[in-house]
Amino acid sequence: MRVLAAMSGGVDSAVAAARAVEAGHDVVGVHLALSSAPGTLRTGSRGCCSREDADDARRAADVLGIPFYVWDFADRFKEDVIDEFVAAYAAGQTPNPCLTCNEKIKFSALADRAVALGFDAVVTGHYARLSQGVLRRAVDDDKDQSYVLAVLNREQLSRAMFPVGDTPKPQIREEAARRGLAVADKPDSHDICFVPTGDTKAFLGARIGVRPGAIVDHASGEQLADHDGVHGFTIGQRKGLGIDAPAADGRPRYVTDIDPATGTVTVGTSQDLRVSAILADRVVWTDGTERDEPFEAVVQVRAHGGLAPVTVHPVRLDDDRPGFRLDLHTPLAGVARGQAAVLYRPDTDGDVVVGSGRICATGDAVPDVAGTSISDGGSARAR
C-alpha cells in the first residue's frame, strides 16, 4: 500500500514509519506545522509539533530513506482545536485537545488530503491496535491511547494504521536505537502543545478576558469568594480555588459544578462530586454498529482514568441528535462536562472500543430515559 506516515518528531511515530517501510509499504513521511509561529509552541520534553520536532522528524525520515514533507495545517489547527478549546472552557467545560486534534486534524483534514493524493492509509505512532477495523487497547496499558482515538468512526479507522500498539514503550525505544534513530531517547511530550508556558489558566484568560463570578458552598449556598472567570476551574479541582478559610469540618473543598451563564462556581465535599448518571452527545459508534436498545458496557471518562460498569441507554436529544445516557453501577467522582465518555466491551475486559460521546450533563442534570428536561433547557427522549 501507499501510506502517509505522520511524523511528529517523537520516537513512536518514527518507529511506526520504520515498521511501515519494513512491511513493504510505499511510505512518505509528513510533519504537520500546526502554528504560524513554531517558536511559540513548547519545546524540549514538554513539547509537541515545535520547530525542533520538525527537524527530528526530517532526520528520522532521512535514516529510513523515505521522502519527507512539512504540511501547513496552522489555520485549520487554530480553528478546529485551539478555538474550540478556548470556547469549551468559556462554557464551563473541560475539553481534551488531543482528542479533538485526532478527530479533526490527523484523521480528517490530514487523512482527506492523503486520500486525495492517492494514499491508502495514514500511519501514526498512537498506542492502540486495530483488529478487522475494530479499535482495541494497546498492549502497553500505561501508554494506551484508545481513549483519545475513540472519536474516530469506522471509515476513519479503515484509513488508519497503528504499528506500535502491539509493543510496550521500552521495547519501542530499544528498536529505535537499533534502527539508528536519534529520537530513541527523546523524552515523551506531554501537556498541551499550544500553551507555551504550561499555564493553561493564563493562556485562557488572555483570550477570554475577565468574567467575574462567585464561588459558593454546595450545602449552604454561602458565597465564599470571587473569581475572574469560570475558565480557571474544572470539576474535581481542589487547589487554587482562592478560598481563604477551610471548610467548617476541616475537609478539603472541590469544584462540584460550574455555571457559565451566571459565572457561579460551586464547591463541596468529595461526596458531593459523586454522580450516578451521565448524558453524552456527539456520539460515535467506533465499532460501526448503531445501537437502539440498552446494553451493558464499561466506561472511561478521562484520558488516564479507570473503567466503570454502566448500563447504556441510547437516546435522541432535543434537536434529534443521537446521544446516550449512562447509568453507573457505582457512582463516579470528578466527571467533567466536555470530556469524552468512551465505552468498551465488558466481555473483553475493556479491550475493545464500542463508541464514545462528549459528556454534556451529569447527576441531577441528566434526564431519565423517559425524557425529562435537562439543565440547559433541552430535553432527551428514549429512542
Automatic annotation (TrEMBL):
Record-listed E.C. numbers: 2.8.1.13
Cellular component, GO annotation: cytoplasm
Site (Interaction with tRNA): H126, Q339
Active site: C101 (nucleophile), C193 (cysteine persulfide intermediate)
Catalysed reactions, semicolon-separated: S-sulfanyl-L-cysteinyl-[protein] + uridine(34) in tRNA + AH2 + ATP = 2-thiouridine(34) in tRNA + L-cysteinyl-[protein] + A + AMP + diphosphate + H(+)
Spans annotated as Interaction with tRNA: 143-145
Protein name: tRNA-specific 2-thiouridylase MnmA
Source organism (scientific name): Gordonia jinhuaensis
Gene this protein is translated from: mnmA
